[in-house]
Design goal:
The protein has 264 residues and is of the alpha/beta class. The protein contains 9 helices and 12 strands. Helix 1 crosses helix 8. The two termini are 26 Å apart.
Length: 264
């Protein structure tokens, strides 16, 4: 099997540049970058984009990018862009690591359909620690019944568009799975009025430059069990995405999660 050659989607953005830096530090093979039409970085060398020596990998539009089966797309973009990338990957037989958030139910269904053709790792958070936390939250929810209220609190920078965050939804889904209930039926976004027993509550904050803070509380009448994760640097998401990209290369078609990558 050929070595994986990475395509960095959204290469001109903050996360795209973080992935480039992480890939260069790890000695990974970067085949190129993808950016939207009209992006200022189009035509630039990806090494130069992050202040390193040129590497011969150039930022281009998706239409200009020729994908190959040995490529793995690493994608921190948006749902619409991710779907376009996934369609191109499926046509070329390339794997895809999808880290975008804010997908609708129809978009999720479209991703699942494309994953029947190529392997896709899709996660609302690429942090290894967050995905381990999801496994712990699921176990806690299985052990603590609805006498313990579940509340998920998250904070992000002012520029984040979707709310609650993809990570908060991942944690809530893990809690719902542990309880054996539907998240759709028990998610509580409106905090007015008395709490409904069994609901999984969300509290959202946006401001400043917060990278990402998440807390899950199981609040009983006599005790509170709490789990926390603090993202200190965006590089942790890039590191996780690289781990996923290496793992998914050569896998059978299917829709995978970071918990599959970690084996938890």
């Amino acid at each position: 099997m050929k070595e994986a050659r990475f395509i960095i989607a959204g290469c001109g953005g903050a996360m795209g540049r973080a992935v480039i830096e992480a890939a260069l530090a790890a000695g990974a093979a970067i085949a190129g970058g993808v950016e939207r039409d009209g992006a200022p970085c189009l035509g630039a060398d990806l090494g130069a984009l992050v202040g390193a020596e040129p590497i011969g990998a150039i930022a281009a539009t998706l239409a200009e990018t020729r994908l190959a089966p040995d490529n793995v797309i690493i994608d921190f973009t948006s749902p619409a862009a991710s779907l376009a990338l996934a369609e191109a990957a499926a046509a070329a037989g390339a794997a895809h690591v999808m880290a975008s958030t804010g997908f609708s139910a129809d978009e999720d269904a479209a991703v699942a359909a494309l994953a029947q053709k190529v392997p896709i790792v899709k996660s609302g958070n690429m942090s290894l620690g967050v995905n381990l936390l999801c496994a712990l939250v699921e176990k806690a929810a299985r052990a603590l019944d609805d006498r313990y209220d579940i509340e998920i609190t998250e904070a992000h920078h002012r520029r984040k568009v979707d709310a609650p965050s993809g990570t908060a939804l991942m944690l809530a889904d893990a809690a719902a799975t542990g309880r054996g209930v539907s998240l759709k039926a028990h998610a509580a976004h409106d905090r007015r009025g008395a709490r409904v027993i069994g609901d999984i509550g969300f509290a959202v904050s946006r401001g400043g430059g917060v990278v990402g803070d998440h807390d899950v509380a199981f609040a009983g009448d006599r005790e509170v069990v709490a789990f926390s994760h603090r993202a200190i640097d965006r590089g942790l998401f890039a590191d996780g995405a690289l781990t996923a990209a290496r793992w998914v290369h050569g896998r059978a078609p299917g829709l995978y999660s970071m918990r599959d990558v970690l084996g938890v």
